[in-house]
Amino acid sequence: RTINLPNASGTIDELLIASGSVSDVSSLDFNSTLITSAYSSFRVVLTNVVPATDTANFQYRLGTSNSADTGTNYHQCMFQYGVFGTNSASGISVINNSSITSMSLTTSYGALGTGTGENAYFEVKLPNATNTSVYKHLVARHSVYSYYPVLYGQRIDAGMYESTSAINFLTFFCSTGNIASLNYKLYGVAA
Fold this sequence. Notes:
Elements: E1 2-5, E2 8-11, E3 14-25, E4 27-30, E5 39-51, E6 58-63, E7 74-84, E8 88-100, E9 103-104, E10 119-126, E11 136-145, E12 151-161, E13 169-174, E14 179-190
Antiparallel strand pairs: 1-2, 3-14, 4-13, 5-10, 5-14, 6-9, 6-13, 7-8, 7-12, 10-11, 11-12
């Protein structure tokens, strides 16, 4: 998209497709009305994420038939590092799995909590979402004040969805219980 202002002009690659907030839902879904081939890649930003159930892990799945793929088509490596107490370090290598049924954004001591101030920020990128000749890369980062309580940040996250079909569905959910609340923004880069 090209924009023209009185004293400047330029191109904006990333466009805000949808934004809002949800509360007390089982999942946050983006379907084929938003995830379309008009965009080559997508970025989702989730803020103030709070679960309804303490120690819930936050996960996501993709799909190519306007629904989530629950098969063993996901692969992930993730390393979290955090701090708690009086500068005590806590490093956790949390995920190193192939052929899993979902992607994890939190796990172990980094799980979401329901205590005062506990919440999370997530950013998930799908850089080649609509490419139909290669598997899909998944890139995530986060900042979580967990149930433990520990402040965790993600140092490394590499993921892959084993499908050459264009993605047209994305869902975020808690491993147990509902999502109590979150704010979201979905961005797309025009194809």
